[in-house]
Amino acid sequence: MLEINNISKTFNPGTVNAKLALEGLSLKVNDGDFITIIGANGAGKSTLFNAIAGSFYVDEGSIALDGEDITYVPEHIRARSIGRLFQDPMRGTAPGMSIEENLTLAAGKGGWLSRIDDELRQQFREVLSKLDMGLEERLRQPMGLLSGGQRQAVTLLMATINPPKLLLLDEHTAALDPAAADKILEITKDTVKKENLTCMMITHNMQSALEIGNRTLMMDGGRIILDVSGEERRAMTVGDLLERFRDISGRALDNDRMILT
Amino acid sequence: MMTVSLIQTALELGLFGALTVLALYLSYTMLNVCDLSTDGCFTMGATVGAVVAISGHPFLSIPAAMAAGMASGFIVALLQTSMGIDSLLSGIIVNTAWYSVNIAVMGNASLLNMNKTDTVFTRLKDALGETVISDSYRLLIALAAVVLVVAFLSFFLKTRLGLAIRATGDNPDMVRSSSINPAFTTIVGLCIANAFTALSGCLMAQSQKSVNIDIGSGMVTIALASLLIGRVIVRKGGITKGAVGAVLGAIIFRLVYTVALRFNMPAYMLKLVSSVIVIIAISGPYFRGRIPLYMKRMGRRKDNA
Lengths: 261, 305
Known about the structure:
The complex is a heterodimer.
Chain A: E1 2-11, E2 19-29, E3 34-39, H1 45-53, E4 60-65, E5 68-69, H2 75-78, E6 82-85, H3 99-107, H4 118-129, H5 148-160, E7 166-170, H6 178-194, E8 198-202, H7 206-211, E9 215-220, E10 223-229, H8 230-234, H9 238-249
Parallel strand pairs in A: 3-8, 3-9, 6-7, 7-8
Antiparallel strand pairs in A: 1-2, 1-4, 4-5, 9-10
Chain B: H1 4-30, H2 38-54, H3 61-82, H4 87-105, E1 111-113, H5 120-128, H6 137-156, H7 160-170, H8 172-177, H9 182-207, E2 210-212, H10 219-233, H11 239-262, H12 270-304
Antiparallel strand pairs in B: 1-2
Helix pairs in contact in B: 1-6, 1-9, 1-10, 1-11, 2-3, 2-4, 2-9, 3-4, 3-9, 6-11, 7-9, 10-11, 10-12
């Protein structure tokens, strides 16, 4: 469904700060895949997501989604089929606007001059009540009053209210306290399963990288250095992962947020 | 003593100016764009409105001025969304350019007289005739325009397009992920805002029956001062309350200014006063936030002594 063909990206080309962030990366994501991605700091994980979502255009190579070449399609057009969550819960919502206003923009239903009506509100109440956070009673409250976990839950709802072809999760639980992180992860898994979404998730938790989803990628130096799935992945332990990283890259895996267990 | 007529004049000027304040409410408060083309656009509304009225179209002059404002807003928005020019710089550039354009619009003159021109004001004055309210024709038109614009904004900013414009000022990333192009919302927002700025200029000029090239100079600071005064009065509440606060701010600004004039403040002080108000209104909360830091520093100094 997603075909990335030999993409490269250099930031600040021609300067002393030039950084080759993606180097001839290719990847084929199958329909219904739930891929977890791990890697050291600066391995290019977020850069890969930025390339897929269209935050910048790649220098070389091509990206196709469901057979359609999107290499030069602007970010806001790609957003119709690609949903995305960031580590920072502030990034996904407009803090000064109410929950229902945020959801209305995400839902994108009706004409430009349509207004929020009771039917839409009822629909929002239903989806919010499934989060089990009491947010269905707070439709008119500003988003900025919500906790990080609540904001991230609403952001997830906004990203999937029109089920996207591809959902990109960039360490979306990393900034939350453990209880909220667990809850968001549960909601994520439920949503992905229920809507049968194709999903890619960056995580710093090696254990959950192996437990969640059906396929794990390891990145280093702007490339994918390991791509495991199926039986091989099922048999893998965190220790195996670390060993494989050392074997391939010639050094120990170093990520200041990495959780090994 | 303040006479009734002085208060009435302050109200009229406050209401005409309130249209520009409402424009900034849309561009500055909602869209988070400080539109420095406001002065030039205000003057453009005045000149275009005057020229069309002088050519014998009193009613057409108003939509014509608003269309000119919209075009002005479109250009400012285009420069900053699609041509890589900084938002503040876009406004300054357009503002400068409009000086030439406005003189050209007035037919190579820097002053136009509308003493014998048929405008909406003369029409209403004639219609009212010798009734009790015959003197308040300017006030009535100003009030009608402000009420219409406030009503429009409180409707529009709750539509999906209005929400998208507000979100653009709040979090452009979120707008993009909602599959809306923030460049588009910025363009629409600035077009509408500048239509109101031009309407403000058009009505102001026609009510005082003349337009000169300096009519808009300093408007952006005056309007910003009014907007910030309004924000102090109406701190909380939704869109409509905020818009009403903006109007109140504009009126209070003019009333205070009128009082100051009565205490022999020279008229030329208007712009200095408005600048000082903007400085206080913006730096005040900044310094208030730093008070704990100052306290700590003072404590440190005492400890060291």
